Amino acid sequence: MNDEQTHTKRTFWDGNFISSTPLREVLQYHRDFWLSYFKQKNIDYDDGTLEKEGKQKVPELEVFIVNLYPSIEDNIPDDLDSIRDREIDIKFHDRTKYDEQIAHVVTDYINLIRKIRKIAMSNAKDKQSLRAEFDSLLKDDGPLSRGRGGKIRKYQSLLEARFDAKVHRIDRRNDGSTIFGKHADFSKTTIEELIKAGRDDSDKQISF
Questions:
Q1: What angle do the packed helices 127-138 and 97-123 form, to 10 degrees?
Q2: Is 7 a domain residue?
Q3: Which end of the chain is more exposed for a tag (fewer CB within 10 A), N or C?
Q4: Could you tell me if residue 9 is inside a domain?
Q5: pLDDT of 32-80, one tens digit each?
Q6: How far apart are CA 5 and CA 162, in angstroms?
């Protein structure tokens, strides 16, 4: 497919080994979509500057992650089949909690910067000069991080179009009778049992 950001043709493969649960990509594309929407519709949005605070923001994102491969094993595998099955669970289980934590840390830093900026503005004698310094800083291309395709960031892009994300997780409970290759079992009985177990796990782990 053609990548709209890098303008190159990209080939995709199963992401299990690299990004089994692509939470980071979902967060990025949510931001990219709304930024593009705001600009196409000429909507005045919060672009990270002092002048745009209080304007339209990117909507909050609610994500549901269903972990089909248990991350916690009740019993220690003691035979070849259960060891191979556990190996697959470890390879493919959801590993996004760290990504979520980093996203929250980044949000905390951004909120801290905004609050410090407000305090500075409210206590400055020469607000016009301070505002000009803030504007100049936001346009600086000093950040070490790079955008998609290696594009150089400006500090403003770190504050622009940020949003809150809430993640719900449904973890499949460990099945004591599980076997290696269970992902390929499409028998009627197994599918019906999995559907029932999935509903039970959802009811117990998510409440609205």
A1: 150
A2: no
A3: C
A4: no
A5: 999 999 999 999 999 888 888 888 999 999 999 888 888 777 778 888 8
A6: 19
Q: Of the candidates 122, 116, 123, 151, which has an alpha carbon nearest to the alpha carbon of residue 137?
A: 116
Please tell me the total number of residues recorded for the chain in this structure.
208
φ/ψ of residue 146, rounded to 5: -120, 155
Interatomic CA distance for residues 88 and 71, integer angstroms: 10
Check: pTM over 0.70? Answer yes or no: yes
CA distance 204 to 48: 40
Question: Alpha-carbon distance 172 to 72, whole Å?
Answer: 10
- 76 belongs to a structural domain: yes
* C-alpha span between 145 and 158 (Å, rounded): 10
What the block records as the tokens of 172 is 């499949």
Q: What is the tally of structural domains in the chain?
A: 1
Q: Which domain holds residue 53?
A: 16-205
Give 92 or 32, the one with higher predicted confidence.
Answer: 32
Q: Which distant-in-sequence residues (6+ apart) come within 8 Å of 37 by Cβ?
A: 43
Nearest to 177 by CA among 104, 64, 81: 81
Residue 2 lies in a domain: no
